[in-house]
Design goal:
About 0% of the residues lie in helices and about 55% in strands. The protein has strands spanning about 1-5, 10, 15-25, 35-40, 45-50, 55-60, 65-70, 75-80, 90-95, 105, 110-114. By secondary structure, the chain is an all-beta fold. The strands form two sheets. Strands 2, 4, 5, 6, 9, 10 and 11 form a seven-stranded mixed β-sheet that branches. Strands 1-3-8-7 form a four-stranded antiparallel β-sheet, with no helix packed on it. A hairpin with a 6-residue loop joins strand 4 (about 35-40) and strand 5 (about 45-50). The N and C termini lie far apart (about 35 Å).
Length: about 110
Amino acid sequence: VQLVESGGGLVQAGGSLNVSCVAFDDGSMVYDMGWYRQSPGKGREAVAISGWDGERINYLDSVKGRFAISRDFTKKTVHLQMNSLKPEGTATYYCYADTSPGTWGQGIQVTVSS
């Protein structure tokens, strides 16, 4: 499996961004997928995880009600819609697929200016 992210960029606080991840996979994407982020000097944290069926979803407490993860099994993509962004959301966002072993995307930068 290979993961390729797109989207991200620079936005003012309160704004919205969407990041997307395409899974180049010959199979049927029967694994959990999600988004992690890492800020300078901090560890990588799980932001939003979608179960293999697209129905078991978990969010980082600080993004609940503002972020939404969704999967398109036909297009083999996973999206993260980020609304009401805050400066602390500035980070490199990584797509992750819970394959065995796990697979990471290359990371995409999201910068939220105050």
